[in-house]
């Protein structure tokens, strides 16, 4: 009887699989990014009508780094539906620019349609200058267009998040963040030759292995980089892997790239592409969420019913509804904007714009960012830098691209990876601003409420303590793109600023940019620290072996000191692209916007999951930390919605995930476990029948799958660009990422071998691969112009 039931179930499953493999819907397949090609993933759509008016369990506003990471993890559950709405495109029309590492710098996307094109307001403490504020707009978010540095902060940086949230429901600290960053990560080790040549030190124990995101080292590293670590060692610094909890030291840091493929890895390529055939994960691109809808309250708390979205101001507005939650993942600038537009924000911001105040929370406040300054140094002629490649001197870029396409190697696989962190003592800085007075001054400048002021005092106490520790106060980056062929840049980026600013909508239109005021150098200690750090770099370059290569300080110039130096760095410094704190995870009476489950105070079912929630800066580029936040958020959300048996089958089951190994082994926490319990067979004969039927069914299924795969292989030939014109084959995993299709060797047979097991890919590394990821700090004077280069500054190439 059971065998018959099983057989019937398997036939039904097989039928379902065949159905899934053969569904074709030409109209929904239309791909506006490649007008002649249809979508090859039914989960990806740009058609608002596909989702308008429907209901999904989770609606994620923003398909960026955190949003897609979270979506991928939630979609691991087949009993929930997930919708992601992303304002930008799906990346398919700019695949090469995203994928090729060097293009992150040389054909940067942030000033075109894949960027938001924002600027800061005139900065009152930076000579009233407005600075470019690049942010990615497209699947993968800023992680799809950035500089790809992969690094995490010191243990103290994350322990501070926990300390700021005493007695909270969820623990946020180094141990948690290290665990979750590593869950995202799959580290690819450099070759021994490369490690020896460039003094790359890796501590595999500090890294993740088996996560979806590929982390590796540039295949081609410029020879000058070999001088970086030894120069720091001349000053007594240790060359080490900075991922183990203390960042003071020098390193060649890995990047978010699949090194073997010379290709970027990002949240779309790692978490979504392998999932794309799952009907319960829908990704809608080119639509901007304009408002969270609330139509109910529960126990006095707001309940979101869904969101409104619109392609642009002139297009139709649509609504879509949530069964469970709305999750805001628009990044640290656009998430506060969306919350404010929805009535969650400071009354002082909303009321003058005529918006209702549903929850008066300090959204957008406690905004802080790393400010970065680029110094330039002349070097001896004949030493290879990025300049000729970037400027396409003698067609250098075309040659490099041809090499990349032929062998996934060459100079375009390089992104800056030579960095180090110094502490306050290294720069001779020992001043500790008065926490109370400083918080009061910052609050007075921007009209922050007493709660925010209280939170600032708590943060400043932690920052003051860090003045006496190894906490990274500055990141120092060697940047191979100088002002001419015989110069390089060294960037100096403040990691733990005292200055705080705000992000506030300036109009009720979702299509206007918000006021972005990071108030760089607003607190005097930040000015002093930057000046001291410039002095430290001047000392660094006198040390061998770099001293034998650097011939002089080009900018600001060795004679520029004192007030002139301050003017120089205030003039050309800018964002290191690390905004956070705008929806801070803090107690409500300390300026918090979300609690430690990332739920917005005063709401039942709205969370923020992205860099906005980080309450205090870390000494690191922000990607790794943001992946960690999203991974942990996924587990928090899954724990909330996990099925719990009404009657535990064994020892008292705890509803907290903190149970011991013994109690967590009880099969009551998962639906699968419960089902297994119900249907367990008790006699050997039944088991024998079951096993026999099972084997037969597996063979049958295998045959059906093979048939379908072969059929689909015949049906789906990639075109010359590697695009497939119809749905991929096989159980949702038949097709790999766009990136894979466009990288050398990415077409044709071999790639499919990695993708033919239903559980390949997502939680296991793609064995041979790598992806390319970003550039980090480009706050060089030329700043965002570098990103803009390929778009609107062709004149720069001559
Ligand atoms: C130019 C640049 C270089 C960088 N370099 C590095 C680096 O080398 N290493 C590193 O670690 N970090 C780097 N960073 C920082 C890192 O990329 C960010 O910290 C990280 O991407 C933040 O993730 P997020 O999910 O918070 O936001 P994002 O990744 O920016 O994602 C937000 C997404 O939401 C979308 N969105 C926003 N509002 C809406 C809306 N209303 N409706 C629909 N969609 C919306 C956006 O279009 C975007 O796709 C860089 C950032 C930039 C901009
Ligand atoms: C900002 O500064 C620019 C010049 O740098 C000036 O033209 C503009 O008027 C200023 N805007 C405001 C609001 O002060
Ligand atoms: C809230 O909105 C949803 C979706 O429109 C609707 O189904 C529900 O009835 C509304 N609830 C109330 C109390 O209006
Ligand atoms: C409302 O939110 C508060 C916290 O913001 C929480 O303590 C309370 O339990 C919530 N009430 C309901 C009914 O969810
Ligand atoms: C690079 O320069 C060559 C000529 O030297 C030119 O043919 C080519 O179009 C240029 N490539 C780019 C990307 O500008
Ligand atoms: C520094 O020296 C350069 C060249 O010698 C000169 O042009 C510049 O004015 C000097 N700057 C200062 C601040 O003295
Ligand atoms: C949904 O599926 C997951 C994973 O199988 C399971 O843990 C969870 O309990 C399920 N939720 C419900 C409500 O059944
Ligand atoms: C999600 O997709 C799976 C696989 O096709 C399907 O079995 C399941 O019913 C879907 N879940 C929901 C909630 O729609």
Automatic annotation (TrEMBL):
Residues 1-20 form the signal peptide. PANTHER family: GLUCOSE-METHANOL-CHOLINE GMC OXIDOREDUCTASE, GLUCOSE-METHANOL-CHOLINE OXIDOREDUCTASE N-TERMINAL DOMAIN-CONTAINING PROTEIN. Its cofactor is FAD. Pfam families: GMC_oxred_C, GMC_oxred_N. This is Glucose-methanol-choline oxidoreductase N-terminal domain-containing protein. The chain crosses the membrane at residues 687-709. Residues 136-159, 331-345 form the Glucose-methanol-choline oxidoreductase N-terminal domain. Belongs to the GMC oxidoreductase family. InterPro entries: FAD/NAD-bd_sf, Glucose_Oxidase_domain_2, GMC_OxRdtase, GMC_OxRdtase_N, GMC_OxRtase_C. Residues 735-762, 774-798 are annotated as: Disordered. The keyword Lyase does not apply. Residues 789-798 have a biased composition (Basic and acidic residues). Keywords: FAD, Flavoprotein, Membrane, Oxidoreductase, Signal, Transmembrane, Transmembrane helix.
């Amino acid at each position: 009887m059971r065998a018959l039931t099983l057989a019937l179930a398997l036939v039904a499953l097989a039928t379902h699989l065949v159905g899934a493999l053969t569904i074709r819907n030409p109209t929904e397949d239309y791909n506006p990014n490649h007008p002649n090609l249809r979508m090859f993933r039914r989960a990806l759509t740009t058609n608002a009508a596909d989702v308008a008016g429907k209901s999904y369990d989770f609606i994620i506003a923003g398909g960026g780094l955190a949003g897609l990471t979270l979506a991928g993890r939630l979609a691991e559950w087949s009993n929930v539906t997930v919708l992601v709405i992303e304002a930008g495109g799906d990346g398919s029309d700019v695949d090469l620019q995203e994928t090729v590492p060097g293009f992150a710098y040389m054909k940067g996307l942030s000033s075109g349609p894949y960027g938001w094109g924002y600027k800061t307001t005139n900065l009152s403490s930076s000579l009233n200058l407005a600075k470019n504020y690049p942010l990615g707009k497209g699947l993968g978010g800023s992680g799809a267009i950035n500089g790809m540095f992969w690094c995490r902060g010191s243990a103290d940086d994350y322990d501070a998040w926990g300390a700021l949230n005493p007695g909270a429901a969820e623990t946020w600290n180094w141990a948690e963040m290290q665990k979750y960053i590593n869950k995202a990560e799959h580290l690819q080790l450099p070759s021994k030759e490369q490690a020896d040549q460039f003094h790359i030190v890796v501590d595999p124990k500090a890294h993740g292995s088996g996560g979806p995101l590929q982390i590796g080292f540039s295949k081609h590293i410029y020879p000058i980089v070999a001088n970086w670590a030894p120069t720091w060692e001349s000053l007594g610094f240790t060359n080490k892997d900075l991922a183990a909890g203390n960042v003071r030291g020098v390193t060649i840091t890995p990047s978010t790239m699949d090194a073997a493929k010379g290709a970027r890895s990002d949240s779309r390529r790692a978490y979504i592409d392998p999932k794309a055939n799952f009907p319960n994960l829908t990704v809608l691109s080119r639509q901007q969420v304009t408002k969270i809808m609330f139509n109910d309250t529960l126990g006095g708390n707001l309940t979101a019913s869904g969101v409104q979205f619109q392609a642009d101001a002139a297009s139709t507005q649509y609504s879509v509804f949530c069964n469970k939650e709305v999750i805001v993942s628009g990044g640290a600038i656009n998430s506060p904007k969306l919350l404010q537009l929805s009535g969650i924000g400071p009354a002082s911001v909303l009321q003058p714009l005529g918006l209702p105040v549903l929850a008066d929370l300090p959204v957008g406040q406690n905004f802080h960012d790393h400010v970065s300054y680029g110094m330039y140094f002349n070097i001896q002629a004949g030493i290879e830098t990025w300049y000729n490649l970037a400027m396409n001197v003698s067609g250098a870029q075309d040659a490099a691209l041809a090499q990349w396409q032929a062998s996934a190697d060459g100079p375009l696989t390089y992104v800056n990876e030579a960095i180090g962190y110094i502490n306050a003592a290294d720069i001779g800085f020992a001043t500790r601003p008065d926490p109370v007075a400083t918080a009061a001054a910052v609050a007075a400048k921007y009209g922050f409420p007493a709660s925010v002021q209280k939170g600032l005092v708590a943060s400043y106490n932690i920052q003051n303590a860090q003045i006496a520790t190894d906490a990274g106060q500055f990141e120092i980056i060697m940047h191979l793109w100088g002002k001419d062929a015989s110069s390089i840049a060294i960037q100096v980026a403040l990691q733990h600023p005292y200055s705080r600013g705000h992000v506030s909508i300036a109009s009720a239109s979702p299509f206007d940019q918000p006021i972005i005021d990071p108030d760089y150098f607003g607190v005097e200690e930040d000015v002093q620290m930057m000046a001291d750090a410039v002095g430290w770099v001047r000392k660094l370059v006198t040390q061998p072996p770099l001293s034998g290569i650097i011939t002089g300080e080009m900018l600001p110039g060795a004679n520029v000191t004192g007030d002139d130096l301050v003017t120089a760095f205030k003039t050309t410094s800018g964002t290191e692209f690390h905004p956070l704190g705008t929806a801070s995870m803090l107690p409500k009476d300390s300026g918090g916007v979300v609690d430690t489950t990332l739920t917005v105070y005063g709401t039942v079912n709205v969370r923020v999951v992205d860099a906005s929630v980080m309450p205090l800066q870390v000494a690191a580029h922000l990607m790794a930390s943001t992946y960690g936040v999203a991974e942990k958020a996924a587990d928090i959300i899954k724990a909330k919605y996990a099925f719990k048996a009404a009657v535990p089958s064994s020892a008292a089951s705890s509803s907290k995930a903190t149970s011991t190994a013994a109690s967590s082994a009880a099969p009551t926490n998962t639906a699968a476990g419960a089902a297994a319990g119900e249907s367990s067979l008790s006699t050997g004969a039944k088991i024998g029948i079951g096993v026999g039927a099972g084997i037969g069914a597996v063979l049958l299924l295998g045959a059906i799958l093979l048939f379908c795969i072969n059929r689909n292989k015949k049906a789906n030939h990639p075109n010359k660009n590697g695009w497939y014109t119809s749905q991929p084959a096989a159980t949702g995993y038949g097709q790999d990422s766009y990136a894979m299709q466009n990288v050398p060797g990415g077409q044709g047979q071999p790639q499919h071998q990695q993708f033919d097991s239903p559980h390949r890919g997502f939680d296991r590394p793609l064995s041979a691969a790598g992806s390319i990821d970003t550039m980090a700090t480009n706050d060089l004077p030329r700043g965002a112009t570098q990103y803009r280069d390929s778009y609107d500054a062709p004149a720069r190439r001559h």
